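Example 3.2
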Amino acid sequence: MAVVDPLPFLSIQMYSIRMGLLLAASSRLISQKLEPAGGRGLHVVHGPRGLSRWALEALCPVLETTWPLYWVDAANRFDAHALSKRARELGMDPRTVLSRIQLARAFNGFQLAALVEGLARRPPHPVVLADPLAPFHDEDFSLEDARRAFSGLLLGLADVPGPVLALVTDRPAPSQREDFSPRLLKIARSVIPVECPILEN
């Protein structure tokens, strides 16, 4: 059963080594859910369009000095330019920040399920799963295939050895595809709504 996280920002004492400042609430939220010491399991952050870019910029202050991560992009929203720009604004080396991310893109539900399944055979770094419902809401992807691929995705998520943060964009689901989101939320350890200050162009 998914739970609503109370956003315990005040209890988190994570600092940016370079900046010497308490991290912004968004950075603390993201880094807390991806902290390897927190164990395996799925966490969901959901919000409006722009969520992937918001998460990238929130991660920027901690990427330079912490663990590498896998970023699985299901909607072709990874914005390396925005991340590099944010790194420069914080006085960081964009190349170092970008090198901490191992990017994989999926262009349909079967590719997404296969990528997630493959994570079980890779070193157990944290995983960001960006807009995972997008392929299954695509009506060019038959409903039968979407359901089969989505079941494979859920099975794959259960075997990922590290923490997974799913960035779920709030959007109306097409007819007969309304059950994908509830099924994903049901297996999450926490579900957190956010309001993104950044909108994609």
